[in-house]
Amino acid sequence: MDDDAPDEALADIKGRQIGGWGVAQIAVGTGLTVYAMWVGILQPGFRKVPLKLQVPYIPASKTQVQNVMTLLRGRKGNLVDLGSGDGRIVLEAHRHGFNPAVGYELNPWLISLARIHAWRLGYHGKVAYLREDLWKVDLTKCKNITVFLAPSVLSLLQEKLHAELPDGALVVAGRFPFPDWEPCRIEGHGVDRAWAYNMQAQKQRLLGKVSNI
Ligand SMILES: C[S@@+](CC[C@H](N)C(=O)[O-])C[C@H]1O[C@@H](n2cnc3c(N)ncnc32)[C@H](O)[C@@H]1O
């Protein structure tokens, strides 16, 4: 056996320079891996959703979830999280007495993860995670709605919520506020901030604006 062989091989590798072609190969390889992860794991189910409406998965932090629950204090009835990710807001809502607590989510991996979390914590059958496009679900009977989405979609979502939600509904938005609505309460600071909107007040504001024209 040649005991020096591994050392020689190592010295040989160390001595080699990575040229421009090598750098290009690494860059292309890394790019393809990231793209494959994006398409295969993070964004399946989004093929039919226009690019500008696709919102990536960024889970709410513990503080963000707490702020949402603080804004929902005193409320009862059903709750819907639009784009429910791994289901953390729905679970917490169920713990706070909201019934039924439902999450709509397009990514099947996240739906499975949410169901596993619920099962592990003993909430199997008590919360629901449905694979639905939030733009297509009927919200006419929703009383409490939570939304952790991107600023690019909030303007359009405002219109849907305005058209469908009953007067008594309360909408809580995390991370980013709705562009044209006036919140009735705000909780937290910086990225943890959450805004609560009373639907009746938004509808009255719009009526006031129209009658002033
Ligand atoms: C920023 S994450 C928030 C996840 C969760 N609500 C939370 O706060 O932890 C947004 C989620 O919305 C989902 N989503 C984006 N567009 C959607 C659509 N059209 N229908 C259903 N879910 C959607 C994404 O897959 C992602 O999981």
TrEMBL record:
The keyword Signal does not apply. GO terms for molecular function: protein-lysine N-methyltransferase activity. The chain crosses the membrane at residues 20-42. It comes from the Eukaryota. GO terms for biological process: methylation; regulation of mitochondrial ATP synthesis coupled proton transport. Coiled coil: none annotated. One of its GO terms (cellular component) is mitochondrion. Keywords: Membrane, Methyltransferase, S-adenosyl-L-methionine, Transferase, Transmembrane, Transmembrane helix. Belongs to the ANT/ATPSC lysine N-methyltransferase family. This is Adenine nucleotide translocase lysine methyltransferase. It comes from Oryzias latipes. The gene is ANTKMT.
